[in-house]
Amino acid sequence: MNTRSHFAQRAMGCQFDLWLETGSETLAAQVAVEVWDEIQRLERQLSLYQPDSDLNFVNAHAVQEPTRVEPALFQLFQTCKQIWEETGGAFDPAITPLLRLWGFIDKQWRVPAQEEIEKVLAETGMAGVLLEPEGRWVFYALPQIEVSFGAVGKGYAVMQAARLIQEYGVEAALISAGGSTLYGLGAPEESPEGWQVGIRDPRSEGERLDTLWLQNRALSTSGGYEQFFEHEGKRYSHILDPRSGMPARGILSASVAAPDATLSDALSTAFYVAGKELAGTYQHRHLETKVWFVPDLEANG
Fold it and tell me: pTM to 2 decimals?
């Protein structure tokens, strides 16, 4: 009979939780150490806030000349480009200057003028991120492009952790990044349907929108109800619409279940931005994706 072990560690600005079902607590502890090492390595590689990260190196150099990156990082760039294309630009990790303009990076919040927004919009975005697969070259063809993986990094870390866990022969695990992205690997012994998780209802503390079972599936939630600022009686969410440069409005939260945590993390942001129409179109092409919305009735009048 397997034993369930729980481990927790802070990284990427949140608490990661790991539940492992193994036949040995010693094995579980060893796997947990490897998982934390990998997540910390990814944070050092992908962080916008660590000056010597690989991402900051690419941001500093790719705007000047093609920059070669290691295979896994290049694949993440490719994944982001593909999701950007499939969501019509509702997911766009190359609009960091817009986040800076609004003060969401340094927490010095402000409401910029429309002219400022339009100027930054014209000089940023994934349309200007050029990728050359054969040599793994990245080039920024617009002058202000700066990539950040805040809307996808936790999901990517969760997915890399799941692959590492599988390499150790562990068949059942649940990984959570701050509760906003989870991945259920296999199924626990007492629940062959998978790992039971709930989708939080942001309108009511402690209430759930739905309960589901994750088996080799991920669940991610994006919402503007935790990170925002208020100005002249109006609330501004930290999730920007890359197409307008304005904070997204109309939805309290969007949750997405998908086979991959990187994908679910990015899609929850895209669907929070673009709403039910984009989600419906995407689901029609990707039947394995499921979406839950909580509307913001105040924003909708």
Answer: 0.95
Q: Angle 261-274/71-86 helices, nearest 10 degrees?
A: 30
**Residue 285: partners with Cβ closer than 8 Å, 6 or more residues away:** none
H/E element holding 264?
Answer: helix 261-274
The sign of the CA dihedral 35, 38, 44, 49 is negative
Tokens (6 digits) for 18: 């790991």
97 near 124, Cβ under 8 Å?
yes
The per-type count for the chain, helices as H runs and strands as E runs, is: 8, 14
pLDDT tens digit string along 151-181?
999 999 999 999 999 999 999 999 999 999 9
Report CA-CA distances (Å) from 128 to 95, 122, 151: 11, 10, 19
> What is the C-alpha to C-alpha distance for residues 11 and 13, in angstroms, rounded to an integer?
5
